[in-house]
Design goal:
about 35% helix; binds adenosine-5'-triphosphate; ABC_transporter-like_CS; AAA+_ATPase
């Protein structure tokens, strides 16, 4: 039987603003199987980023549980959570978040260095090749196009060999063609290294590249299409 790598149970995140309560997530049961490539789609303010942050242990829920790889994130203290995140989860954000003073190779290996684990140079070389970044290894981020910068951010997310990659609008700043290229590469690299991907998008065309689309509206999952078989 396939294992669930992500499992949220009755997940709620409420924000209090004065006398109002914003129900960013309002009872979300969300399951992801290992090696699935899932797109979460929904309008602005529907709760997509909040859900991704909860799965990534970047923020804690008001109620409910989040399990990642069978571990209950709510049972971990801050330090345990930080280590768990560094070793198991790769993040890709819309604005790349590259360190401007470090070149491409240094950006990619930074999280591994910070974790104090030896860099697997052959693995990084392979990622660079798969993401068509071999010739940019020494380049500084400000000399790269948006698509190239996003590929570096993906390489960085993959370099620590996380089981799961969480991507928040990874193609949001790219033109359509670059967005599709970047997504295609993310998909093939994730498949090659047997990684699970959960990505947020506004874009139906991008979502169509996934195994399964989950629709979120007003903090609730309203529809999930497809099956777990993968493509
Ligand atoms: N730190 C916060 N404090 C108060 N309200 C917040 C906070 N973070 C998010 N919210 C609210 O929670 C709701 C869900 O926000 P979220 O960022 O998850 O939506 P989203 O679907 O990712 O939107 P977008 O596509 O615009 O990024 C929104 O109404 C938002 O205003």
């Amino acid at each position: 039987m396939e294992t669930e790598i992500v499992n949220t149970q009755a997940l709620k995140k409420y924000y209090k603003l004065g006398n109002n309560t914003v129900k960013a997530l309002d009872g979300v049961d969300f399951k992801v199987k290992e090696r699935e490539f899932i797109a979460i789609i929904g309008k602005s303010g529907s709760g997509k980023s909040t859900l991704l942050h909860m799965i990534g242990g970047l923020d804690s829920p008001t109620a409910g549980k989040v399990f990642v790889g069978g571990r209950d994130l709510g049972e971990m203290d801050r330090e345990q959570l930080a280590i768990f995140r560094r070793r198991n989860i790769g993040f890709v954000f819309q604005n790349y978040n590259l360190v401007p003073d470090l070149n491409v190779y240094e950006n990619i290996t930074l999280p591994v260095e910070l974790d104090g684990t030896p860099v697997d140079r052959e693995f990084v070389d392979e990622i660079l090749r798969l993401l068509n970044l071999e010739e940019k290894r020494e380049a500084m981020p400000n000399t790269l196009s948006g698509g190239q910068q996003q590929r570096v951010a993906i390489a960085r997310a993959i370099a620590s060999k996380p089981a799961i990659i969480l991507a928040d609008e990874p193609t949001g700043n790219l033109d359509t063609a670059s967005g599709h290229d970047v997504l295609g590469l993310l998909r093939s690299v994730a498949r090659q290294f047997q990684q699970t991907v959960v990505l947020i998008t506004h874009d139906q065309d991008i979502a169509q590249l996934s195994d399964r689309i989950v629709h979120i509206e007003d903090g609730r999952i309203v529809r999930g299409s497809g099956n777990y078989a993968g493509k």
